[in-house]
Structures are given as C-alpha cells and as structure tokens.
Design goal:
Blueprint: E1 2-6, E2 8-9, H1 11-29, E3 33-37, H2 49-58, E4 62-64, H3 76-79, E5 85-86, E6 100-105, E7 108-116, H4 130-141, E8 147-153, H5 157-166, E9 173-177, E10 187-188, E11 194-196, E12 201-202, H6 213-217, E13 237-246, E14 251-261
Parallel strand pairs: 1-3, 2-12, 3-4, 4-5, 7-8, 8-9, 9-11
Antiparallel strand pairs: 1-13, 6-7, 10-11, 13-14
C-alpha cells in the first residue's frame, strides 16, 4: 500500500500545485490514499466549502486542518455534510467537526487524525495535552483501524520529534506540518513508524512561508505599519512524503520526500 501526505496547501499557488501534480503522482506510483493538509488553502488562512471541493476534485481522500481551522467560518458547512475533513483531536470534545476519519483502503482500514502542539502555538481554542490525547485515542479506538496516520501540527521541531518517538510502533506515519519548510529527516524510526519533522508546504517558495515578502516584512519589527498577510503566487511547488506499507505486516517499508515544481530542487521527474 502507498500513502501520500501533502504538506500545508498555501493559497492559490498551493492549490495549483496539488491540481497539477496529484493526478500524475497517483498514476505513476499507484497511490492508494492521499492526505492533504488544507488549513491554509483558502487565500492562505482557513478552508471554505469551495476550496474543500477543489482539493477533493484534485484527488485528496482526507484533509487535515490545524490552528487556522476556524479562520473561515463557513468551514462549519463542510461538517454538516458527509465529509473527510479532520480538525485537531486535542480541541475540546464539544468543538465543531471531528478529530479523526477512518476509511477503507482496499481491505484495510486507515485512520487519519491530527494533533496541535502546545509549545508557542497561538490558538483561541484551549488545547488538551496532545500526548495524553493521542494515547487515550489509541487505547479507545485501536480495534477500529489497521493503519494510523498522525498529522502533528506544531511550531517547534522538538515537539514534533518528541511525538514521533512517543508514537513509534503505535502509528504508521507521524508527519509534521505547520512550519512550511521541508526537513531532510524522513526516515523509519526504530520501532517501525515512518516520520518526518516537517513535510513542507504546497505553495510559492519565493515567499515567507507562503505569504508575500512585502506583507511579511511588516510583521518583524521593521517600524512599518503591519499589513495584512497576502498569499504569494509567483511560483508553485508541491511538497509531500510517499510512504509504502507492507500490507501483511502493516508496517512501513519506506518513506521518501516528493518535491515537484518551481524553486526547490525536485526529488523526482514525472
């Protein structure tokens, strides 16, 4: 089985990358499941029903969110219908939406969930301890799935790495998101879990984390009036990881970065 996880889709440039490359990747590598982090898909912050539908058409099977889950209020319309959208699991239990999604991939059941890190994370919604939350979730639901993918959406490298080791042997894949820069540490941990600290973003890399340099400069103490962030649209790159899983042992056999598009060196050719 092959699982592709695409990093944070940042605005129109990210959506363009997903639409351009997902169909070709799925065909070339015979990918069985595609997971996309979509929390920045709608003009760089949040998700709307329209952009949700756009990513579905591009090939996403499941979408994860993050600290910008409710930046677009009409996101709640998605949860009112049959959906594949996953918000952070460690939000309070009465928060709108759902913290995990289980679906069939062939004859296996794949569970996708997401956690928000607490270190330096600016969120209006109070967070439960992500480590206790995921451990409790596994103890409660472990008989309901065969494979577990955890999107660890966090500010710090240390918290993402800690979660990887905490879930080593319990999760199929732990993938870091949120910081938008692909790290070079995709590997299998000692007990078999596939891990990467940050998968990177799908978007414009001639930018500050997907936002135009001009609007970003005003947020870093340059003595100018703060400007509203605007997504950059000069180039378009997809950043993802491709994980192969042995269907008999249900353990990952490899994890490899996939980078396609402008600016960054591409890891493959289509």
């Amino acid at each position: 089985m092959k699982i592709l996880f695409c990093g944070d889709v940042a605005g129109a440039a990210g959506r363009k990358a997903v639409k351009n490359y997902l169909p070709q990747l799925k065909e070339k590598y015979h990918i069985d499941a595609i997971i996309v982090n979509a929390e920045n898909a709608a003009h760089g912050l949040g998700l709307t029903p329209k952009t949700y539908a756009e990513l579905l058409r591009a090939g996403a099977d499941v979408m994860t969110m993050g600290n910008h889950t409710f930046d677009k209020m009409d996101v709640t319309e998605i949860w009112q219908k049959e959906n594949v959208l996953v918000r952070p699991l460690n939000y309070p239990t009465d928060t709108a939406g759902k913290g995990f999604h289980i679906f069939n991939v062939g004859n296996k059941r794949l569970c996708v969930t997401q956690l928000l890190g607490k270190a330096f994370m600016n969120t209006k919604i109070p967070l439960e301890d992500p480590f206790q939350t995921i451990q409790s979730f596994i103890e409660t639901h472990r008989d309901e799935y065969d494979l577990l993918v955890v999107d660890m959406h966090a500010e710090t490298t240390a918290e993402k790495v800690a979660m990887g080791y905490f879930l080593d042997g319990q999760a199929t894949l732990v993938v870091g998101t949120h910081t938008h820069i692909p790290t070079a540490d995709a590997h299998l941990l000692q007990k078999g879990t596939a891990f990467v600290t940050d998968v990177g973003m799908c978007g414009d890399y001639t930018s500050v984390l997907g936002m135009t340099t001009e609007t970003a400069f005003s947020h870093f103490g340059l003595g100018t009036e703060r400007k509203r962030f605007e997504p950059a649209t000069n180039s378009s790159t997809l950043a993802a990881v491709l994980v192969e899983v042995n269907e008999k042992t249900l353990t990952p056999t490899s994890i490899r970065p996939i980078i396609l598009g402008d600016i960054l060196e591409n890891t493959i050719k289509l």
